[in-house]
Amino acid sequence: MTDTLSDADLREHLDRLDGWTVVDGKLHKELAFTDFVTAFGFMTRLAMVAERMNHHPDWSNSWNTVTLDIASHAAGGITAACVELAEAADRLA
Fold first, then answer.
1. d(Cα 42, Cα 46) in Å, to the nearest integer?
2. Domains detected in the chain
């Protein structure tokens, strides 16, 4: 099992992550795209990364907006893998 990040480590990562916050114990971000197809394409690309990592986000899509919430269910909070997936989402967006 992977350890959750300490509050200090989490704050440090949040300072580097663009637009991410913590909501209900999860990394949270809403991304707006030009249209539905672009938003869905982003989700498809991120799904491939998440599957390779075996670390899957909670997410939703409403037309051009994708809402991401990332936490480790196994660890019970935010881990380094959560940050890595958030960074991948930013690169793909």
1. 6
2. 7-92 (3.30.1360.20)
